[in-house]
Amino acid sequence: GLKKKEVNVLCLGLDNSGKTTIINQLKPSNAQAQDIVPTIGFSIEKFKTSSLSFTVFDMSGQGRYRNLWEHYYKEGQAIIFVIDSGDKLRMVVAKEELDTLLNHPDIKHRRIPILFFANKMDLRDALSAVKVSQLLCLENIKDKPWHICASDAVKGEGLQEGVDWLQDQIR
Ligand code: GTP
Ligand code: MG
User: What is the Cα gyration radius of the chain?
Assistant: First the structure.
């Protein structure tokens, strides 16, 4: 059949935000892991959509591993940035990491699409996607296409809308 276009995606965000859970849900059910543990360093995963074949760099969000992220920026053609919508205390840390990413020389002047997941929307005290985007000042991102979706990665809700958007940005 027709070969799908290959795209490298960086999956970034603080530890415990749900990155690995999201990527796991996007894989075909026979390839999904049963239990998910905190990522050590990073893990390379693959999933496909109707037109694209994604290779995901699922990075650890733990503080001691965040210095690894930048080594993959050059290779990334899209970014998935995951936020725990229930973690109000660390929203400022998430913003710091996002700002560092956006100001990095390998990212700053590129029109790279960024998909944000305001994840854990199922938590009773979760912030809305609108509130998360305000706290992260996403409206200040003028030179890159971006989109934010509320998601519940455990149930798999909200993920398809995001991936559909990402696919449209790349075609
Ligand atoms: P690191 O690999 O340490 O950077 O973390 P991560 O961002 O990959 O998070 P991971 O996918 O390991 O999920 C962390 C915890 O959050 C797990 O216990 C998940 O089951 C849980 N989790 C992930 N997504 C959701 C969600 O949408 N809602 C709820 N309630 N829990 C979630
Ligand atoms: Mg992980």
Answer: 15
- The count of residues in the chain is 171
Q: What is the pLDDT along the chain (171 residues), one digit of tens a residue?
A: 678 999 999 999 999 999 999 999 999 999 999 999 999 999 999 999 999 999 999 999 999 999 999 999 999 999 999 999 999 999 999 999 999 999 999 999 999 999 999 999 999 999 999 999 999 999 999 999 999 999 999 999 999 999 999 999 997
Q: How far apart are CA 38 and CA 15, in angstroms?
A: 8
* Rounded CA separation 118/17 (Å): 9
Tell me which residue has its CA closest to atom 30 in ligand 1: 120
* C-alpha closest to that of 11 among 1, 23, 28: 23
- Tell me what ipTM this predicted complex has: 0.99
Burial class (CB in 10 A: 0-12, 13-18, 19+), 109: exposed
- 1: CA distance to ligand 1 center in Å? 36
